[in-house]
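User: two proteins, same treatment. go.

Assistant:
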Amino acid sequence: MALNNAQHNFNIVFCRPPYDAYIITPLLGLGYLNAYMKKEGYNAHIVDPLQKSRLSMAGTVKKISSFNPDLVGIHATTDFIPEAKNLVRMLRKVIPRAKICLGGPHSTSIPEETLSELGVDFIIVGEGEETVLELVKKLEKGETDFKRVKGICFKDKKGKTILTEKRELIKNLDYLPFPDWEEINPNFYPPAPHGIYTKSHPVGPIMSSRGCPYFCTFCASNAIWRHKFRQRSAKNIVDEIELLVKKYGCKEIHFEDDNFTLLKEKTIEVCNEIIRRKLKIDWKCPNGVRIDKLDDELLAKMKASGCYLLALGIESGNQDILNRAKKNLDLSIVKEKIAMIKKHGIITHGFFMIGFPGDTKKTVMQTIKFAGNSGLHTAQFNILCPFPGSEVYDEWIKTNSAIKEWSRFTVHTGMYETGDLSAKDLKNLQRLALIYYYLNPINFFNFVRHIRSNQLKFMFNIIKNFILPEGKK
């Protein structure tokens, strides 16, 4: 969306705080918000300090203030809440008149707490497009009563925290404009996209759907999506892919959906549309797909349309642990499905997690050995983290309410301790899993064969976070 035919004298900036990351992609949430507000005639801009030009905290504040914003919208994940807090503090000093709001799964999950901790004016709870628009309209008019704006948390004139009624989810996703690709142009980002490796650059990430109908206890995404699955039409999805390919030169597409293959016929429609338009692209699903939803017909069509890699959420090699985590997956079909995927010439990457409630050294070793014998090309071993919004967090916080070290809420830290395994035990087991898996010459070869030289810096960051002892980082 190159043109901004503003009809309103109200300036908005959407941003995220600067932080050290080994995955750096255009932030689709901000892209959607910016495009939506431009569509409604507002002056809207994105400041992303993670683009190639890399901005410091001071540089980020300076760039935001240059737009003289009336509202600043910040997106922050759990582990970068400290950076968001620092950004808010600095913005208050430089542009004190601007209102500040915060959105994302973390703030949606614990809105009252986040409002108080960061000192922002508003928390956007849930899906943001319609909520931000309604809030901006009130701010533009100078109104001060926000109790009827669905999906926000704020303090009223008396200092009382108000959490308003939940907003209905957008039913027709085709109604939304594409993300503002002019401001989050894939060419602006370094070669550090989602996943261990990519085939081509630049990479265009897209969301073909929103939501997930499953109830995995470790997942926080449904804090926003509420277990409601909605999908864009095949035409709408491929229109965006074609735009990314022809206007922005993207050679690879990443489907960042929670469940790209959930509806087989819908997925085949997307593949057929890519083929019909003769779009020569590579694509993958780095966020994971349901392995039980894949079959030969679907995989053949995916391969024909350019799919070269599927990440698979397997999580544990122990069925009882999986059942307790509400994963709804039968381990007995996994190796067969992996073989089926590989038969179609598609790379397989497995997600595994250690430290589930009930995990012991024995069950973790079962997971490590299962992964090693699964036939996967590559595997990733995360430590379970009790992210706000997940069922695991709701249980964990009952006895850990004093722990608010948000920077430690990552999949390589070990915040969640089982009855048998300490944080140190989990870190050691994670390191063991990676070494055990990649000491296999075939697995190691599969790991290194696709790495591009311009990704080496980011690969080192992955090794630093997941393998090296704390004192060596």
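Protein 2:
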Amino acid sequence: MLKVLICCGAGMSSSYLTQKLQKEVTSRGLENDVSFDFSPIEMIGSLHCGEILNQYDVAMCCPHLNFFIKKITKKNTFNCALYLMPPRMYGTLYFDEVYQDAKDVYDEFKKTKVNPFHFPGEERVLAIKRMEAYRNRDQHKYD
């Protein structure tokens, strides 16, 4: 089972968006395949951030946490992939696209172990314009 943590600043948007994703998991019968949970960044930023993050396979973080995620990954090593979501993707959280990105992030992170994780050409998260999964990015054009 792929365990995904959705992270935002105070937990308000991540809790709502996580509920949306988890409802899709249930309605599609994917409870044995994936689970979504949420946490405000204050929980991750604590002294025990490794204990929290290492319970998950992927932490998908809102894009404005860019500097914070870079800071904690310089000081810590995690078994969990820390992925900054593109702004438009975080705003919409289309289930199929988020789930596909989570699977791809997890698979690639197992090979590289580099945090924060980013797909090729997406080093500058705030410049990313896509709303779809990285592997589907050429199927739709957004300005």
